[in-house]
Amino acid sequence: MPTDLMPLLYAIVLGYLCGSVPFGLLLTRAAGLGDIRDIGSGNIGATNVLRTGNRWVAAATLVLDAAKAALPILVARYYWGENAAMIAAIGALLGHCFPVWLNFKGGKGVSVMIGSLLALSWPVGLIFCAVWLVIAFAQKMSSLAALTAAATAPIFAFVVVNEWLAGAIAIMAIVLFFQHRENIARLMAGTEPRIGSEKKAS
User: What is its EC number (predicted)?
Assistant: First the structure.
């Protein structure tokens, strides 16, 4: 393998390994809330952790999932440059969504994408969060907010930074859309639940 590709390989492996740490699963077990995979949608992300009724564990999951994306990005940027940082971001998202330790069944990637964007370009990350909040408050749908923020993020990245970051974020947005395919089907059918409408899982 050409030596100039090795840093990118290191970056994606580092990103994947960090991203694949299932904080949602670990925290819910530690808090005595059971196996998060048996609750709600069954995924390990912060949104599903919130369905346990424990907001503090859900908030901790959100922060740690964002951090596990930001860390490999910052390390990759320091050692191997900006291109490696973007590759690490993609690796972290893939690790979170498809962790080898959990038979490739992970979370939907919103928290990881937030952490990635804040680490890659904090203005783009803040815009992502702002779009999410606006749509979430206006439409009361977490999935629609995430999909809208992800769809517009590459555009903002292109305007604020450059086409390379826009391309990397576009790849991440495609992964996020794939992970939300069931939500998209429910949105099209008009059956997607609104924020606050779901009852605590038993």
Answer: 2.3.1.275
> Which amino acid, one-letter code, is at 192?
E
Q: Which residues contact 31 (CB under 8 A, 6 or more apart)?
A: 54, 57
Low-confidence ranges of the chain (pLDDT < 50): 1, 199-202
Dihedrals phi, psi of 182, to nearest 5 degrees:
-70, -40
Q: Are 153 and 128 in contact (CB under 8 A)?
A: yes
Neighbours of 200 (CB within 10 A): 11
Instruction: Identify the pLDDT of residue 198.
Output: 53
Distance CA 181, CA 70 (A): 25
> What is this structure's pTM?
0.91
Residue at token pair 């702002």: 130
Q: How far apart are CA 193 and CA 88, in angstroms?
A: 33
- Residue 194 has what pLDDT? 82
Helix (H, G, I), strand (E, B), or coil: what is residue 41? coil
* Terminal alpha carbon distance of the chain: 52
Handedness of CA 42, 43, 44, 45 (dihedral sign): negative
For tokens 């996020």, what's the residue?
176
SS3 42: coil
What are the φ/ψ torsions at residue 20 (nearest 5 degrees)?
Answer: -85, -5
